[in-house]
Structure formats: C-alpha cells, structure tokens
C-alpha cells in the first residue's frame, strides 16, 4: 500500500491506493486465471502513466441528486465509492402561496341608445291643407259627440268659410313671423273678429250665466293655436316624431288642443256650433294651425 498526500481545498487528505485491490480487479476482468502481474521496479511509480503503466483513476465524490440520494450510488442514501458518508437531503421548500386576486366588479355597460332612422322628408306639396282641416274637424266632432255636445256643423257654409279665412290669415302671419302668438298684423284676436265682420255675429250667451261671451272682451275664449310638422322628423318631448300623412298631422293638432286645458275649454262650449280652421303648410314642412269658434244664428250659414 502506497500513501499519497493530496491537498484538496487547503486540507490534507490521505488517499490509500489499494494496489492489491487493483490487481484483484484485473484478475477478475481477466477471467481469474494467469500470472499475477508484478508492479514495475522503477525508481518512481508515477501515477500519471508516464512509466508505461496506467494512472490511478481518482474516485469521484458522491454527488447528491435533487431527490436526496447519491447520484452515483444505489439510491439508499450512502455514497457509492465505499465511504460511509450519508447524502444530505435538500430541505423541503414550502411553496409561497400566491396572493388571491381581489375580484373586480363587472363594470356596468351603458346600452347604446337605438338610433331613430332618419326618414326621407316628403315634399310639402304632397300634403293637402284642406285634407288636414277635414280630418281635424272629424276628430273634434267625434270628441264632442262623446261628451254629449252638438258637433260643429256647416263646414261648407258661408259663415264657416268666412271664419276659415280669418283663421288662415292668422296662421299665415304666424308662419311668416315664426311665432305662435294670438296677435298678428298688429291685431289682437278680438280685433281680427271685428276686422272680418264677425265680432257681433259670433258672440254668444253662456248657459247658466247672465253675461255674453264676446270675442273683443274674452278673446282667449275664442281661439286655439298649434305648430307641428308634416313629412319630416322633429323632436317633441324628447322623442323623434314623424307625421307621414294628413291624418297624422291632424291627430297631433287635435291632441294638443284637447290636452291643453285652456284650449279644451274653448272647444267644449255647448253653445257654439261653428268652427273655423286655418292651416298653413310652409316649404320647410311646418304646419301652423288656428281654430276660431262662433255661435251661428242661422242653420244654413
């Protein structure tokens, strides 16, 4: 046995080279027979093989695998090179819990309002002012009939035609000025009745009362007004409205007159029996409407 001193990492380790063991190993590899080889009697037995022999192969240190067993051993935790060193297992790593994400509330999605399709405007000349007037008369008379009142009569009589001219004159003036007002051309409602020869003819005695309702003194009780549109989109009460024919236009005017408490009182007098209607339709599809009431003296007027 030859002792060699090897310096590893600054420390002296005694490595015992078992020559006999090496020779025995060679005999095993050779089949166990033959002469036992005799070591060379040279002056220096170099381990690096320079004398023609084989250099002694250092035994590698056992390497511990990641599972705690020696990488070159038998897996039972001992070093495979014959020493009694026990492989040190890696410490168990406790996994760090990932932080639980905070749930984010689902954002409220504001629905996109449905766009109202823009309808193609209808030329004003496609509408008949007379047709709007007749449809409006029919709606008002049906309403009065349901209330137990006599309908407005003689739509083609001379008196109604005269009232129509007065009402139309006012609707034209409002359209030209762009204002929905009771005064036009410097004349109030009562003064217009007088100018058209209707002030005395249209006044009436109120039932259950001892006074006369006169257009010159009680003008607000003789006239109703409205502005709307025909054949084009327009905004009303936050909604887009479109009147495609004369009936739709007449209905809009009627609803305004019926829902307005002042105008409703004008149209449901039980004593009156004539109604003049003036409709003016402009090139911008505006519809200006005026209604004037009267108590007719003769049945055929």
From TrEMBL:
The keyword Transmembrane helix applies. InterPro entries: CAP_sf. Gene3D superfamilies: CAP. Residues 53-121 have a biased composition (Low complexity). Residues 32-124 are annotated as: Disordered. The chain crosses the membrane at residues 6-29. Residues 38-50 have a biased composition (Acidic residues). Keywords: Membrane, Transmembrane, Transmembrane helix. The keyword Transcription regulation does not apply. This is CAP domain-containing protein. It comes from Halosimplex rubrum.
